[in-house]
Amino acid sequence: MDFIWNNIFRKRTKDEADIADLIKKVPIFEDLNRLELKEFLRISHLRTYKPGEIIFYEGEPGVGMYIIQKGRVRIFKEAEEGKTTELAVLEDGDFFGELALLDDSPRSACAMAITETKVIGIFRPDLFSLFERKPKLGNKVLLRLANMIGQRLKATNEQLQQLTREKEATGADR
Hints:
disordered N terminus
């Protein structure tokens, strides 16, 4: 009969606590309560990548997002003749690939581990299964995700407008 009580009073392991704390720092999940966060712990997957190992390639279908627990990840686009354009270098606590939670369209860039890197993956099929079981939680997370994507779109539009103004100013000087 002891086996019945073992899981009821089990405390979270240090790894589970670290992962929960890390997930909670991602803006999409920051408003989750302890029980809601526990649901995401159940669907999170810990993966380790070696330096130089590709996490995903540009053009692959997006299947989920990643949160960097430890390490560094380079986000880049491949150009012709083997040249690449670096878009970002991400570190502990950063996240990437979140659009894949909404859409399985092809990845817009590559992601590669720079150092030995541990990531927490949250994948679309698991997420949608969770949302079917817990629709209120799904609405809460999807609203936060939409808000974050909207903020990023506004920032991108501002950058594009700034680049357009700079280009026009440079052209006007000629």
